[in-house]
């Protein structure tokens, strides 16, 4: 008999459909419940998948018995819901951004340590075949040593995008393109290049009706001494997501928007260097929720740990934290500085009064 993973979804808005469809497409899950504070939202998604609606995660946990709960609510509610699910001994899949601060991340990690459940995070761009190959080849040195990188999230979000109450606010969305959008490419960059050491950053609000930035830029130095330039924008009509890594062996580049295929990756060997990239090509898996959630279901049913754990995303949250800390203080920030007690450990706005923050984000 095929083993079946019992899954549930909390937050039945836009992205929840991708979760329900990705789980269903594995043929090895059953959706045991859908919870949303808005009853019609829960009902609609539950109806589409022959599942049961609930008014809250609390009701869902009391009545259904999921192995895994996907949390697809706005980011401001992720930590609290994750802690409740972990207290019930169940595993959690958090949409990005997993939490709004390092303090929240550590609180969820503490709840995980005393739970039978585990915490995983959606970073689907780690899971396409291009990134899987790039990570393996870079880690093994087959593509040479990384020296210079560029990481660009040039996206466009018009003013009406910020109409929902939770968007544009520290409390609901948690931050601008640094946290909510660029985090996908930032996470992939760090996944490929390893630990970073220092960040110098700028963040400005040029146009959108938000409490934080609509553009940010950072200069980064890695532990390996590689350097990177990172830009995150919501003001860029011709949209692009790009990572380029120049190594001693060549230039590796991926150009895409919201997901890549193998054809979006290109490796240009340095003169006289071998091309380990082309010869490593295998099955073409696009980066998507289907790719990551399919692998997650396989891992959990096989009793393996899925590799995109909460712990594995800490460097990404540290990076985002440091970018805000540097932009808002005008100082260079070291990863080693981001310990409890650091003003930006508790909150990405550093606990700074909103009037002062508005001045800080003025160009
Ligand atoms: N990985 C990706 O590519 C990707 C893409 C889009 C969105 N996201 C992430 O998914 C999350 C949700 O985004 P969205 O665009 O689907 O939002 P949305 O506003 O469309 O949907 C959120 C839903 O959650 C419900 N909700 C709010 N608080 C709740 C609570 N405490 N308990 C139960 N339900 C609650 C709302 O009623 C709403 O139905 C965010 O973290 C976002 O960043 C990820």
How would you portray this structure in words?
This is Putative dehydrogenase. Residues 5-121 form the Gfo/Idh/MocA-like oxidoreductase N-terminal domain. The structure is a single chain. The protein has 363 residues and is α/β, with parallel strands linked by helices. The chain folds into 2 domains: 5-123 and 291-308, 3-Layer(aba) Sandwich (Rossmann fold), CATH 3.40.50.720; 125-271 and 314-361, Dihydrodipicolinate Reductase, domain 2, CATH 3.30.360. The protein is globular. It contains 12 helices and 14 strands. Nicotinamide-adenine-dinucleotide binds at residues 10-16, 35-38, 41, 56-57, 72-75, 77, 95-96, 122, 124, 164, 180.
**Broad CATH class of the largest domain:** Alpha Beta
Compute the separation of the termini in Å.
62 Å
Rg, nearest Å: 20 Å
Task: Predict the CATH topology of the largest domain.
Answer: Dihydrodipicolinate Reductase, domain 2
Q: Sum up the overall morphology in one term.
A: globular
GO molecular function, one term: nucleotide binding
Domain GFO/IDH/MocA-like oxidoreductase: 133-253
InterPro entries: Gfo/Idh/MocA-like_OxRdtase_N, Gfo/Idh/MocA_Oxidoreductase, GFO_IDH_MocA-like_dom, NAD(P)-bd_dom_sf
Domain Gfo/Idh/MocA-like oxidoreductase N-terminal: 5-121
